[in-house]
Amino acid sequence: SSELTLSVSCLQPSCFGYPLSIFFIIINEFCERFSYYGMRAVLVLYFKYFLQWDDNLSTAIYHTFVALCYLTPILGALIADSWLGKFKTIVSLSIVYTIGQTVMSVSSINDLTDQNHDGSPDNVPVHIALSMIGLILIALGTGGIKPCVSAFGGDQFDDDQEKQRSRFFSIFYLSINAGSLLSTIITPILRAQECGIHSKQRCYPLAFGVPAALMAVSLVVFIIGSGMYKKVQPQGNIMVQVSKCIGFAIKNRFRHRSKAFPKREHWLDWASEKYDKRLIAQIKMVLKVLFLYIPLPMFWALFDQQGSRWTLQATTMDGNFGAIQIQPDQMQTVNPILIIIMVPVVDAVVYPLIKKCKINFTPLRKITVGMFLASLAFVAAALVQVQIDKTLPVFPTAEQSQMKIINLGTDNVTINFGSEIQPVTVMSTESTDYMTFEAKMLQLNINSGNKTTETSIMLPGGTRLTLGVKNNETAIAVKQLLDNVTSKPEEGNNLIRFINNLPDPINITMGDVSFEQLQPLSGSDYKLFPGGREDKIIGITNSMTCSVTAKAFGFGSANTIVINECSANRLNVTYSEDIPPNTVHMAWQIPQYFILTCAEVVFSVTGLEFSYSQAPSNMKAVLQAGWLLTVAVGNIIVLIVAGASKLSEQWAEYVLFAALLLAVCIIFAVMAYFYTYVDPNEVEARLDEEEKNKDKKEQDIYEKQSEADSQM
């Protein structure tokens, strides 16, 4: 019966006292935010691994895209308020948005240009061009509808539904966080899958395709509710009025710049010839707030690096959380999870405690604390980066070569390198670490058992090689293998190769990957395997099939597996670690995310609240535009600083950003100290009073004039 009541109540234009239309708007917003944050979560890794861009270019394009997403809302607001109205703007730009997401998904299809089916696109410029078209359309779409959807939702309520409208905005922001949280968990899982027609690759088409589908759903849901919406006609945009008034004041001031004209109290007063006193007073209040916005972009410069630098940092870490394997781009979910927890905790516990301590924690002080905390978060990120750097292998320069020795025999081996370094003794079936030499011809003297041999090895510059040494019955065999690896495997994958230490040839399969047939004392090339797995190794010789389950190699390592024996259907293998796995755990990123989220709670929420409290209600759109502009400028700052700093160490770049924000924080604190809080309602009341007095005076003059006329 309760279900029946629900359906009957919802047949009315309202449901539970709310206009039915807002439910379509909330579902629309959830799907749109899922689409945007889902695509953005995997974007920087798509640039790095699919388009093969380096970290700096990936970061630069990522922040250019985010900046564009925060510049276009001003365009969206102008279109909606001055031309199409909110409904038509949302529909038309959502279509643009959906096309953009679809183009993005198509751009990531590997088989689009992979003619030779080798697993990598043959014509990367085609993929880059499609990606850029897709991203520009997405930026136009998401930015264009951003200022319209919440305002359109607010339009659905009558004047007597203030309580419902307030609750709608709470549910609206909850749907934003829910969409963001779910998509940041789901799309990285989709990206980690393998898909493809001819060769299996990371599934970017699915990771971008699901957000595209959600955007299409968002559009359809929004259009279905069309008949129920209250559609307000475009009223003209306040930002246009404000811009015209400021422009006129500047032009008029410039025209009357000679000393013959008396100075006016404020430069905006030069607009009084054309614009009324009320508008000028309102713009003065807005400009006072916008002046305080000048230092704020630096906060966003740090905050938005969660999706770029911090995600790239996570790719060099260990994401093994026991039963769960966390993808690098999933670490971004820590932020929305903590936001959901921290906002009520800060409001209900932290602020009341500060109040009890009789500390006057004004909005501007909160913003200053937020900036300081964000700076602290980057110091934490730098400390984590220092620990990561300690675990990274040192690869040879162009003038150097590195060599390691594996003893494949049963006797110990001693190798003399002449005057280069001290002699090295290697136990049976063991190996050395990589040793660094100058790139040149190297003479070696090798002793094992009662045998000695001399050999010359050419050490090419900028490469690593492995020397397999085995004391056979007749002589000492020396086998040289070129490693062809000069960087750590990406995305937590492992590189595996085999050395055949059997007297017979062997065919090897590991998991579902087959290696070429290996002759005795020869090595295979490295092949890529997902991290954290324990794959089965199968070896087939002329007379027998043997197998063994390989040990778990962790994440981001390179290993050589030596096959020593195949008997009783079991392989006897030894392992030699060429590159150690990622050992710094992703959990070490949680403190920096926690500090940054605390910063966001006291900075972002307070910032908008403060803005609205310091300006008249009809100027909210101008302040919203200004606020979004600070985010855009913040992302542009990342481009400038990262491009101009030329720092080779990532930890140093984190410290640079932290220092810059700290300096800006001090400047903001000084500006805040001299700021005088105003009450817009008081200013409005004073203006009303002045207008009333002016009208009364005009009325008195008119009456006196009428009296005088009648006496004549």
Short description:
With 712 residues, this protein is of the alpha+beta class. It has helices at residues 2-9, 21-50, 55-84, 86-107, 124-155, 162-192, 204-224, 238-255, 277-293, 297-303, 309-314, 334-356, 363-391, 590-613, 620-645, 650-673, 680-711, and strands at residues 14-15, 18-19, 194-195, 201-202, 320-321, 324-325, 400-407, 413-416, 424-426, 435-438, 441-448, 451-458, 463-471, 476-482, 494-500, 507-510, 513-514, 527-529, 536-540, 545-549, 558-567, 570-579. It has 17 helices and 22 strands.
Explain what the structure shows:
This protein has 712 residues and is α+β, with helices and mostly antiparallel strands. The chain has 3 domains: 15-236, Growth Hormone, Chain: A (Up-down Bundle), CATH 1.20.1250.20; 294-391 and 585-702, Growth Hormone, Chain: A (Up-down Bundle); 401-579, no CATH class. Helices cover 53% and strands 15% of the residues. It is built from 17 helices and 22 strands. The protein has helices spanning 2-9, 21-50, 55-84, 86-107, 124-155, 162-192, 204-224, 238-255, 277-293, 297-303, 309-314, 334-356, 363-391, 590-613, 620-645, 650-673, 680-711, and strands spanning 14-15, 18-19, 194-195, 201-202, 320-321, 324-325, 400-407, 413-416, 424-426, 435-438, 441-448, 451-458, 463-471, 476-482, 494-500, 507-510, 513-514, 527-529, 536-540, 545-549, 558-567, 570-579. Strands 10-7-13-14 form a 4-stranded mixed β-sheet, with no helix packed on it. It has a 4-stranded antiparallel β-sheet with strand order 9-8-11-12, with no helix packed on it. A hairpin with a 2-residue loop joins strand 1 and strand 2. Helix 2 runs antiparallel to helix 5 (124-155), helix 2 (21-50) runs antiparallel to helix 7 (204-224) and helix 13 (363-391) packs antiparallel against helix 14 (590-613). The longest helix has 32 residues, at 124-155. It is elongated, with a radius of gyration of 34 Å. The relative contact order is 0.11. Residues 1-12 have low confidence and may be disordered.
